Amino acid sequence: MQIVGIDTGGTFTDTVILADDGRIGVGKSLTTHGRLMEGVIASLGVAARSLGRNLRDILETTDILSHGTTVGLNALLTGSGARVGLLVTAGFESTLPMARSNKVHGLPDEDSINALKWRKPDLLVSRRRIVGVDERIDVDGRIVQPLDEQQARRAIRQLVSRGAEAIGIALMWSPVNAVHERRLADLVAEEAPGLHVTLSSELAPRIGEYERTATVAMNAYVAPLVGDYLASLEEALRAEGFVGLFLIVTMGGGVRRAKSLRDAPVHLLQSGPVGGIMAARQVGARLGHADVLATDVGGTSFDVGLVVGGTLPNATRPRIDRHSLAVPVIDLASIGTGGGSIAYVDAELGVLRVGPQSAGSMPGPACYGRGGTQPTVTDAAVVLGYLDRLGGALHLDRGAAQAAILALAEHLGMEIEAAAEGILRVANAQMADLVRRASVQRGYDPRNFVLYAYGGAAPQHVGRYAAEIGVKSIVIPRLAPEFSAWGAAASDMRTACEIELPARSLRDFCDIEIEAFDRLEQRARGEFDGLGEAGFSKAVDIRRKVGLKFSRQLHRIDIDVPGACLGPAEIAVAEAAFRARYEQIVGRGAAHAGSTIELAAIVVEARMPISMPEAAKAPRRGVPQPVRSRNAWFHGREQETPVYLWDDLGEGAEIAGPAFIESEQTTAVIHPDQTAATDADGNLTIAVLRHGKAPAQPSIEELA
């Protein structure tokens, strides 16, 4: 059994090969924007060579290849998606342009307090390509006005004449009765064969017109590009000898067959970061950590997610680039702070800023030697001696990094090293702030969590941003630089099917809902047909849930229910679980005992575990010895710092800081008064100094 995981990030494309003999191959290459397949193939080749094999040999013997990709997200963020035509119920043509009445919908906190920046999300669909069709279904699913097929045909032809390259269909109350949407899809196939069609009743059967319509528009916007990419990548892999199962990471957690996502690519928009948090859950389960703060520092962004009690919470109001979503999304928070984030002086306030602009992979930070000239976080780390190479073969140019930071240092009136320390301090403070917001604002105490740090740049920064938070300890996984790729390879097959209902008391649950549960379960099981022979367990784990909310509230909380029966006793248990979860989110005492609990949705989640090859253990070795040393700055002064090789550390090794622990892909920075220890899997654990116990760091003014 051999499994390959590939993650395409904003700066690097990473590959992990889990070979059937227990060895692990890793590869990293720069992401080739506009030609993503080239970066994928290059990264695969590097990983193959790390095992002493060639690309074709690896692909011919691979049973499962799982991929996390940013191709759809890139199209969304750069405005390079398809021209979308949208069919809606006549009279509701302004649902998408109106959005929510709140003018600051989806704005970050720093912009929501500035009225000059209040604006609605940019439309993915031109208003002239939003056309109403004559039909109407009511809240109970009854046909009030039959679909006018002749008028619908004219509307479809009108959209095509206006340049529509994909069609989205979002009709009123289609989650309750989808007959008109399905008929419209047939008419599109007749009038405009070959155009991609997205149905809201299939993609996002949720009540809430704006979110459902926005999700349909987003899916139609990226579908042609993503579909072509997945088909072309699979064709390229097959040409190189791959005959196994091609899977894609979804942002709702788990992996699904690539062919099932070509028509629903909205599910993979954030698949890369989700791969990392799924890996954090896997490693956490192995190490006995049920509650994990997962932090990912890449070249472009910093992502934070939670593992709570061994589960991955879903976002209650998911958005991407301010566009609302009505599909399951693992709860992640992100900011534009990463290794490639550009540092500058705010022209209005005269203070040092870091990000969200990034140097990316082209040209990249100045120290890459690829033409970059602006100072970045990675350049600051190089100036301070924390890094001297990246990705094994990529040696970093310290002179170029110093030149990039020089202008910034002169503007601030300080030495280059002081400016570099200032850049890292600002970046680490931004990271610590996001971790607090992602935990405390969601009702969780960081002191009850272990913090996992992964991504190529996390091992350099975690010793500082974790100290500000108060977590139990830090874990840097052995495959931290390729953790999202490893998460893709190690993820179970998962799918979720749901139906949102007009709200009514949970105690009115009846046989109709039981039948709906059965239909959803049958649909979910269909995703796993034929996979028992492809490296997955033949047993499918089914979980049934009810989406509950208090009367007059909008947002639901999904609660597990046992078996097929939902009698009075089971309903009482579900209500108690809902109240407990509600108070955890909102605050103790918020769940009024007399409030009516309403049923808003029924959900079926299905999972098929993957059969992972057993990885080789780290051997026990003697006292670790440094292989060299280099000068580096800590707390405002330069000192000689030993460098250890990660691969030379056996189980139980301990290294006191200051020190550097290098692998082929990253460098872990162990700060003064910190100690790192290795476990049997080669992970690093760092004891966290509580805020205020570390030696006082001089301010930027003092450093100047």
Describe the 3D structure.
This protein is α+β, with helices and mostly antiparallel strands and 704 residues long. Among the domains are: 76-227, 3-Layer(aba) Sandwich (Rossmann fold), CATH 3.40.50; 493-608, no CATH class. It contains 19 helices and 34 strands. An 8-stranded mixed β-sheet has the order 17-14-13-22-23-34-33-30, with helices on both faces. Strands 3-2-1-4-11-12 form a 6-stranded mixed β-sheet. Strands 6-5-9-10 form a 4-stranded parallel β-sheet, sandwiched between helices. Strand 33 (675-678) and strand 34 (684-687) form a beta hairpin. Helix 12 (377-383) crosses helix 13, helix 12 crosses helix 14 and helix 13 (398-412) crosses helix 14. The radius of gyration is 26 Å and the shape is globular. The model is unreliable at 691-704 (pLDDT under 50).
Largest sheet: 8 strands, mixed
**Going across the major beta sheet, what is the strand order?**
17-14-13-22-23-34-33-30
Q: What overall form do the CA principal axes indicate?
A: globular
CATH topology of the domain at 76-227: Rossmann fold
Gyration radius, to the nearest Å? 26 Å
Strand content: 25-35%
Low-pLDDT residue intervals, each spanning 5 or more residues: 691-704
Q: Counting H and I runs of at least 4 residues, what is the number of helices?
A: 19
CATH uppermost class of the domain at 76-227: Alpha Beta
